[in-house]
Each structure stands twice: as C-alpha cells, then as structure tokens.
Design goal:
mainly alpha, 11 helices, 0% strand
Length: 259
C-alpha cells in the first residue's frame, strides 16, 4: 500500500527533475524535426550523415517508400538514440537522490518514525519516480509526433508510443538500479555515477557478435524491431523480472539500513 502524503511529497520534490527531463527530451524532439536548410526533410541533431542516403530519390519515385523512409528515420533518431541515451540520464537523475538525499538532509529518521512501514516508504518512493519517468518518456514521444505534424509528416502514433513504452521498461530497470545505489550511499552524485557506470557495462555484450540480445541498451533501442511490430514480449517480461528482483533487493537493503 502506498502512502498518499509521501507520494505527493515525492512528486513535488522531483518536479524540477521531471521538468528537466521533459525539456531535454522535448528539445531533442524539436531538433530532430527541424528541416534541413536544403529542403523540407528532417535533419538529425547528431550529424548530417544520419540522414538516410537516397531519401530525396525515394521521395521522387514512390510516396509509400518515401513515407516509410521518413518513418524509419524518425524511429532511428528517437527510439534508438533519443530515448535510450537521454532517457538513461533522466532515469538516473530521478533515482539518484531517492534515499541518498534523505540521508544527506537527515530526514530519513523522520520518515521511519511515521506510521508507514519501510516497505510502504520504499514502494511509494519508487512508484512516484516511475510515474514521472513514464510521463516524461510518453509525453515527449507525443511531442515528437506533434512537432513532425507541423511539417506535414504524420507519424504512426501507436507504434511510436509502444516503442517508447518498450524503452521505458528498460529505463525502469536503470531507475531501480540507481535507487539501490542511493540506499548504499548518502551522496546522490555517487549513486548516479555508479548507476551510469553499471549501465555502460550492461551495453558491453552488444559489442560482440551474437550478443546483441543480451545488451540492455540495444534492446531498449529496439534496433531489431520494425515500425509495424515494435514490441518485444520477451524484453518486457525480462525487464519486469529484473525490476521486481531488484525491487526485492532494494527493499532488503532498506530493511537492513540503520536509521
């Protein structure tokens, strides 16, 4: 059972972090949809080389091929880069201070003295961050679709939202890992740095042939998915299992914490 007062407190205290995430991903969405100076086609914020070769030719020859090329372009830029990379930063920022900041402020003792059990406190704090992370990821994905509509490009809403949800599943695991580090230290910066380092380690399997499916980063990017079928049930179930396993580990550490 979640503590309503604590939940509202967590939402208020993390509002600035949430707004930072929205501004960051929203700015990326806006830059992705900014037309290139040479024509009304999307220019990537990463480099001009990210523009798909032959895009103009495809546009001239076949409208259906051109549309699919544009969809693939935005899918690559948003799902494979924006959400996966910037999303990890947002999830770490949201999770780094969940317990470490309470320790630094000396308010953890006050929380422990409330009628809420440590399980309630832990689950409420985790739930509040997940709500903000979910709203940030899905909300900015809808912003991307809105921005592209200004240039006459109608992206398929459902596949992009489902792809964003798939990325959220991976980011939720990163968020949970960050919370565990937040329990182990009283410095949010240390918790965030440790989580970022571990996240980079989780991407190492993708560097080797045949190891892509074991790389959290690559799975979050949905590189092996298509716009028509972007959701992987295997990835969802794996992330759910990891999330709940980490939740139990975090709760166990929370009960062992001396307050």
């Amino acid at each position: 059972m979640l503590g309503r007062s604590l939940f509202r407190k967590e939402i208020r205290e993390n509002t600035l972090k949430f707004l930072f995430g929205v501004l960051l991903l929203g700015a990326l969405a806006l830059i992705i949809t900014t037309p290139a100076a040479s024509g009304p086609y999307p220019q990537s914020f990463f480099s001009r080389q990210d523009n798909l070769p032959g895009m103009e030719t495809n546009l001239d020859k076949s409208p259906e091929t051109a549309q699919k090329t544009l969809f693939s372009h935005f899918w690559k830029q948003w799902n494979s880069k924006g959400l996966a990379l910037a999303g990890i930063l947002v999830s770490i920022i949201l999770g780094a201070g969940v317990f470490a900041q309470e320790k630094a402020k000396g308010t953890l003792f006050f929380l422990a003295s409330t009628p809420l059990s440590r399980r309630n406190i832990y689950d409420t704090k985790v739930a509040a961050g997940l709500v903000l992370l979910f709203a940030c990821i899905i909300g900015t994905t809808l912003l991307l679709i809105l921005f592209t509509s200004f240039y006459g490009i109608s992206l398929p809403v459902l596949p992009f939202v489902i792809g964003a949800f798939s990325a959220f599943c991976g980011l939720a695991v990163i968020y949970q890992v960050t919370i565990i580090f937040s329990i182990l230290t009283d410095d949010p910066l240390k918790a965030g740095a440790a989580s970022a380092f571990l996240s980079s380690l989780l991407s190492i399997p993708g560097l080797f042939e045949g190891g892509q499916k074991y790389s959290l980063l690559l799975q979050m990017q949905s590189r092996n998915s298509t716009l028509e079928e972007p959701f992987s049930w295997f990835f969802f179930l794996l992330m759910a299992a990891l999330f709940f396993a980490l939740r139990h580990l975090g709760l166990w550490l929370c009960y062992r914490e001396e307050i």
